[in-house]
């Protein structure tokens, strides 16, 4: 057992304030760190053969093979994972460690390494290491279990850091796309003399809704429109604030001498309109664009 257990006195400066709360959440103590460090020599010895076994297993799946361009890339990824797992039992759980793990999660996400692939590699490593440690410590299985349980705490904390980065990166990408969609210009189409169609697509936030109002009123003035069909079929969601802007746009259109028809209402949009006190008598609405155009044409004629 002496080839596995290495003495390691707890360091008082290991836990820094920024990570204290996170470590308490996972119930990771200095005792856990000391136990994990006691596995350092064995983990270092076994990391490479475990990773080699894992990649033999991984590359037997066609879907997984598509993540790698060639053998050189596979070799680089193996070396990266070798360092990663060696650091798991030896690195200080401080701000620098957390920042580094988050950077790795960002690199994985950008490289197309899926959470399934990442967690799968982790599970394979911990499972293999656990069996090997138990085999080597048959004379003291209770001690082996305590070491492995502590390592598992740290491993789950480590995985959480990377997975949070995956989520944060995906959410940032979604927010960026929504921001780009909200900045798209909204076309104002003239269907015929006096009739305008405004198809709104993408994210409709308060900023875009205000710009929409200005755009619609300008086109009503320039084209002397008598009816406007505002179609929001392509809008995913509308909250009460945006619904209020839409009603203001339709009211302003009426003041400019044009009748407004709102089409493409979803159940969510209808509920948002009800929340701000709008009734069916207060505005012209239609479930679909074709019906809305027909209503607008009748209003123009009548």
TrEMBL record:
Signal peptide: none annotated. InterPro entries: Bact_StressResp_Reg, Globin-like_sf, Globin-sensor_dom, Globin/Proto, Protoglobin_sensor_dom, STAS_dom, STAS_dom_sf. The keyword Phosphoprotein applies. This is STAS domain-containing protein. The keyword Phosphoprotein applies. Pfam families: Protoglobin, STAS. It comes from Mangrovicoccus algicola. Keywords: Phosphoprotein. PANTHER family: RSBT ANTAGONIST PROTEIN RSBS-RELATED (PTHR33745), RSBT CO-ANTAGONIST PROTEIN RSBRC (PTHR33745:SF3). Residues 185-296 form the STAS domain. One of its GO terms (molecular function) is oxygen binding.
